[in-house]
C-alpha cells in the first residue's frame, strides 16, 4: 500500500485494524507518538509510513509493556504476559528479565535476530532520550532484535477502541494525564498532567480535558471530542454516579464552548 498523505500538518493513519496488524509486525512507522520503527541497520522510518505487508509476518513479535512498573513481557497473540519484573526493579533488572524471557519462552537470546520487539511507553516519555535508549539496547549487541518499535501506550488504547482521534484520560496510581490524539498522532502541546489521582472530582477532570483540547491546534478540536476514553487504576473506583456527572459536565461545557454534541 502507499504511504499516507499529509493533511493539515497532522499525520493520517490507516484503518485501525490494519494499523494493529502492522504494529504487531513492527512494520508501520509514523512520528509524533505512533510507532517509530527502527531497523537493525539503524535507519528510522520517520513520518511517511512504511508499507503494510499483506503476507505472513516476517518476524515473530515480543511485546514489552515498559510503561508499567514492573515491566510486563509476552508474545504477540497471547492474552496475558508471561513475565513480570519485580515491583520497583531498576532498569538493568528489567533487561535481565527480558533475557530470562527469551531463554524460557523462545530459543534463547541468540534467537533475538528472528524476533521483532515492541515497547509501549507513556505518551510523555515517547519523545524522550529514554525511549530512544530502549531501541538502542534492543538492537545492540546484548539482544540484536531484528526490528524495534517504541509506541505510546495511549495511542494503542485509542486503536484498541477502533478509533484514531480523541482524548485518553488516564487516572493512574500517582497522577492523572490527559493525552490528545489526532489521526494517530500525539498532540504534545495539549498534554496535561496532574499529580495525585485519588478522589479527583469529575469537574476537575472536565477542566483538564477542555484545557487539553483548547491548547491543541484549532483544526483538531472538534475531532478530539469525538471520543473520550477514561482508563487507569483509579478509573475502576468510579461509580455510576461518577461517570454520569463526568459525562453530563463534559457535554454541557462542550455545548457552551463549541455549540455541538459529543
Give your account of this protein's structure:
The chain has 262 residues and is α+β, with helices and mostly antiparallel strands. The chain contains 7 helices and 14 strands. Strands 4-3-9-8-5-6-7 form a 7-stranded mixed sheet. Strands 10, 11, 12, 13 and 14 form a 5-stranded mixed sheet that branches. A two-stranded antiparallel ribbon has the order 1-2. A hairpin with a 4-residue loop joins strand 3 (36-39) and strand 4 (44-45). It is elongated.
What key attributes describe this structure?
alpha+beta, seven-stranded mixed sheet, five-stranded mixed sheet, elongated
Question: Gist?
Answer:
This protein has 262 residues and is α+β, with helices and mostly antiparallel strands.
Describe the SSE topology.
Layout: E1 6-7, E2 10-11, H1 16-24, E3 36-39, E4 44-45, E5 60-65, E6 72-75, E7 83-84, H2 91-105, E8 115-121, H3 129-139, E9 147-152, H4 153-160, E10 166-171, E11 175-182, E12 185-186, E13 192-195, H5 202-214, H6 221-224, E14 228-231, H7 240-258
Parallel strand pairs: 5-8, 8-9, 10-14
Antiparallel strand pairs: 1-2, 3-4, 3-9, 5-6, 6-7, 10-11, 11-12, 11-13
Helix pairs in contact: 5-7
General shape: elongated
Cα-to-Cα separation, first versus last residue: 33 Å
Instruction: Provide the structure class.
Output: alpha+beta
> Helix share of residues?
25-40%
Mean pLDDT: 77
Side by side, the strands of the main sheet go 4-3-9-8-5-6-7
Strand fraction? 15-25%
Question: How many E strands?
Answer: 14
What are the segments in which pLDDT stays under 50 over at least 5 consecutive residues? Answer: 4-19, 24-55
What is the H/E order?
EEHEEEEEHEHEHEEEEHHEH
Query: Radius of gyration from the CA trace?
Result: 19 Å
Largest beta-sheet details? 7 strands, mixed
Note the total helix count.
7
Amino acid at each position: 500500500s502507499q504511504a499516507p498523505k499529509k493533511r493539515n500538518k497532522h499525520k493520517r493513519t490507516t484503518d485501525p485494524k490494519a494499523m494493529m496488524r502492522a504494529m504487531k509486525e513492527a512494520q508501520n512507522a509514523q512520528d509524533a507518538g505512533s510507532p517509530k520503527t527502527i531497523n537493525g541497520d539503524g535507519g528510522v522510518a520517520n513520518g511517511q509510513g512504511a508499507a503494510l505487508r499483506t503476507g505472513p509476518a516476517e518476524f515473530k513479535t515480543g511485546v514489552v509493556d515498559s510503561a508499567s512498573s514492573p515491566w510486563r513481557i509476552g508474545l504477540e497473540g497471547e492474552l496475558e504476559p508471561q513475565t513480570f519484573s519485580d515491583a520497583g526493579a531498576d532498569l538493568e533488572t528489567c533487561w535481565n528479565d527480558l533475557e530470562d524471557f527469551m531463554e524460557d519462552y523462545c530459543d534463547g537470546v541468540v534467537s533475538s535476530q528472528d524476533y521483532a520487539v515492541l515497547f509501549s511507553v507513556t505518551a510523555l516519555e515517547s519523545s524522550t532520550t529514554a525511549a530512544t535508549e530502549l531501541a538502542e539496547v534492543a538492537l545492540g549487541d546484548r539482544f540484536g532484535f531484528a526490528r524495534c518499535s517504541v509506541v505510546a501506550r495511549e495511542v494503542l488504547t485509542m486503536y484498541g477502541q477502533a478509533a484514531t482521534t480523541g482524548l485518553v484520560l488516564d487516572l493512574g496510581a500517582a497522577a492523572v494525564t490527559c493525552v490528545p490524539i489526532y489521526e494517530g498522532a500525539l498532540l504534545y502541546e495539549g498534554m496535561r498532567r496532574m499529580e495525585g489521582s485519588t478522589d479527583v472530582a469529575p469537574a476537575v477532570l472536565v477542566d483538564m480535558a477542555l484545557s487539553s483540547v483548547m491548547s491543541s491546534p484549532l483544526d483538531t478540536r472538534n475531532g478530539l471530542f469525538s471520543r473520550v476514553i477514561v482508563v487507569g487504576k483509579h478509573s475502576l473506583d468510579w461509580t455510576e454516579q461518577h461517570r454520569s456527572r463526568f459525562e453530563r459536565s463534559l457535554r454541557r461545557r462542550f455545548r457552551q464552548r463549541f455549540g455541538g454534541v459529543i
